[in-house]
Amino acid sequence: MKFVKNAWYVAAWADEVGSDNLFYRTILGDSILLFRQEDGVAVALRNRCPHRFVPLHLGKKIGNTVQCAYHGLVFNAQGKCSATPCGESIPRGAEVRSYPLVEKQKLLYIWMGDPEKADESKIPDFWYIEDDSWASVKGYIRGESNYQLMVDNILDLTHTNYLHADTLGSEALATVKTDIEDKPEHLRLKRWMPNQFQAPLSAASRGFAHRLADSWLDTTWYPPSNMVIEMGMTEPGGRREDGKVAFSLHLVTPETETSNHYFWSMSRDYCVEDSEMTRVIGHGFEKAFTVEDKPVLEHQQRAMGETSFWDMKPIFLAGDSGALRARRRIDAMLAEEQA
Question: Given strand 8-13, what is the order of strands in its sheet?
Fold first, then answer.
C-alpha cells in the first residue's frame, strides 16, 4: 500500500483512549494499539504479539504494560518484552514496534514513518477546539473510500450547491473565484463572497437567513490529509474582525487503500452558550456528510476499483485546481520517501 509515512496523522480523539481500555485502530494498513500509562500519557504500539501474532488488544493492561492474551508475554510502553510465562528468559526479538504519539488539543497524532523525522512542531495548531470561549462539537465517521477522495471533496467545494443544496450549498460558493496560496507547509484556498446569500445552515446560525452578507471561506490543507475551513460572515460592508467565525476541522487518516477515518469538528465564536445551537450544528454537519458526501465517495471508490486516479483519466474543471495541487504534492512526497 502506498501511503506517505513521514507525516502526522490523527489516530484518535484523545477521549477515545481511556485510562483502562486497550484501544485499537487500523492506520495505513497496520493495526495499532493505543493505551495510557499510569501517568495518563498515551502510547502506540503495533497491535501484534511477535510470538504467535495475536492482537495485543485482546489482552489486558497491567500498569504501564500490556499482557498478551495467548501466552502472557508482557510488553512495556516502548514495545520491549518485560516478562515471559513462568519467568523464562526473554527471547531475542521479543518486542513490538512503538510509534511516536503526541496528544495535542484533544487529538492523538501518530507518526508511522521514520521516528527520527517526527517533528512535533509540524502538527497544526487547532487552538479553538479547546478554547472555552468558543463552542465546539466533534465526531468520527469511518468511510469506505480512499483518503485522497476525501481530500478532493473538501478542497473542491463547488459540489456543495448540488450535493448539499438544502444545507451547505449556495450559488455564491459554487461560482466564487478561488485564490490559492501554495507554501511548503500548507495549501490555502481563499474565497471572498461579498454581498451574497450564503448556505442555509451557515447563514441561519449566524442570523443571516434569507439576508445578504459579506462572507469568506478559506480552506487550509496540511499535507497529506489534515484540513481546516474558516468561514466568517458579516454585514455587507462590515469589518471582517466583526464577523461571526467558525472553524471546521476535516482530519482524514487512511485506514487501508479503500477506507479512511474521518475526524471532524466545528468550533464557533458566536452564541457560545447556546447548547441547542451546538447540537443542531453538529447533527446537521454529521447528517450532511453521512447522507450526502459519504455515499457518493463510496460509489466513486467502487467505480474506480483498484485503478489509480490518474489511470482513470479524469477530466478536470476549474474547481479542481486545489485538489490537483494536493494530489501532485502527495505524489512528490511518496516519490521522495521511496527514493
Answer: 8-13, 107-111, 101-104
Does a structural domain hold residue 80?
yes
Q: Which grid cell is 167? A: 444545507
Residue 40 cell numbers, joined = 495518563
- In the chain, the N- to C-terminal Cα span, in Å, equals 16
Determine the structural domain holding residue 196 and report its residue range.
131-338
**Which residues lie across from 267 on neighbouring strands?**
136, 247
Together in a domain, 234 and 309: yes
SS (H, E, C) 4-30: CCCCEEEEEEHHHCCCCCCEEEEECCE
Long-range contacts formed by 124-128: CB under 8 A, 24+ apart: 124/222, 124/226, 124/228, 126/228, 126/247, 126/249, 128/247, 128/267, 128/269
Tell me the residue type at 208: F
What number of other Cβ atoms are within 10 A of residue 177's Cβ?
Answer: 9
For residue 138 the three cell numbers come to 466533534
213 vs 195: CA distance, rounded Å: 5
In the listed set 99, 122, 145, which residue is the last one of a domain according to the structure? 122
Instruction: Please indicate, yes or no, whether residues 114 and 237 belong to a single structural domain of this protein.
Output: no
What pLDDT, in 10s, does the model give residues 38-95? 999 999 999 999 989 999 999 999 999 999 998 989 999 999 988 888 778 888 889 9
